[in-house]
Design goal:
Elements: E1 4-5, E2 10-17, H1 22-31, E3 47-53, E4 56-62, H2 73-86, E5 93-99, H3 110-118, E6 126-132, H4 138-148, H5 150-157, E7 163-167, H6 176-189, E8 193-194, H7 198-217, H8 219-232, H9 235-259, H10 262-287, H11 292-316, H12 334-343
Parallel strand pairs: 2-4, 2-5, 5-6, 6-7
Antiparallel strand pairs: 1-8, 3-4
Helix pairs in contact: 2-7, 2-11, 7-9, 8-9, 10-11
Amino acid sequence: MERKKGSPTELRLVLISSCGPSQFLLTNYILGREAFTKDITSISECTKNTGELSGRRVAVINAPNIYDKGICQVKREMELRKSKCLCSPGPHAFLVTFDLEKISKNEMKTPKMMMERYGRHCLRHCIVLLAYGGNLELPALEDRVEKTDWLLRDLIEQYGGRFHIFSKNWRDRRSDRELLKKIERMVASLGGAFFSSRTFQKADEYVKKEEKRLKKQREGEIEKAWVEMEKQYIAEELYQQKDAYIANVGAEIRAMAEMDNRWLRTSLARGLGTGLVVGAVMGALFGSIEGPGGMVLYGIIGGAVGGSAGGTAQVAVEHMEDRVAPPARLNFNSIFINRFFANTRPC
């Protein structure tokens, strides 16, 4: 899929981690503040934080760890979709984080899993970030990575050989400028483009539609605010106040559209609904062997299992959307989905 050029004013960075606290340590390091406390090792929902990296405006998107066993597959897939909305219209870089002292053979699968989730060309936009908490100096660490640790070197080569070592103490930001240079250099080598695919384009489409809907919904509120401003300010000060107000409202609407839009509300409901019906019917058929009571019992069990499986199957379509037509769209209440996942872990 063709990659598109984005605004140079803000870098959109998606942080990926297989397990543990590495991506949260990196978020603090990039932003220069404690966005995540030191005891955070996993999250169940995507987050977005903005700030500056060595003077450059950045948006940092965190998603659940790839191997986090506390999240069921349906929820995981929905959070993947949400992460694509949060970095709409597409990320400039994927920062793939590992603990330099705890690289496992299982983490060698991370590149393959990333391609399955984001598209086969996403590795071109990746930099490996290695968290380190020891006393070795940076030259010695880089020498270890490049010359002695063959497992790690092989992993980094899958990401084009790009890597950066950062301190687990986020207050130690001596190499933050170097990290920014590496990101900007990679983006420049790709023509100044951010990563895009069919699903990222779809995410952008739905975010924009939701923005438009919310803006129209708040037209009366905005007009009323302007009338009040015109009573209090004049000339240049009035224009400044209006510009600031519009910017604030626009940012608020954008954030709402990224977190909740029709694309996030519909596909899961479709999968859950279809799976629920099919599962209930199949369960009832098997239960009929034991009589009417068995039909009811197995129908309920089949519906629950089918709903979960159907949701997984539906959101898994996202991995294929670069090759097939997008699924049909239905309406659904996202609050129900969030409550369902909050109360149901096993899948």
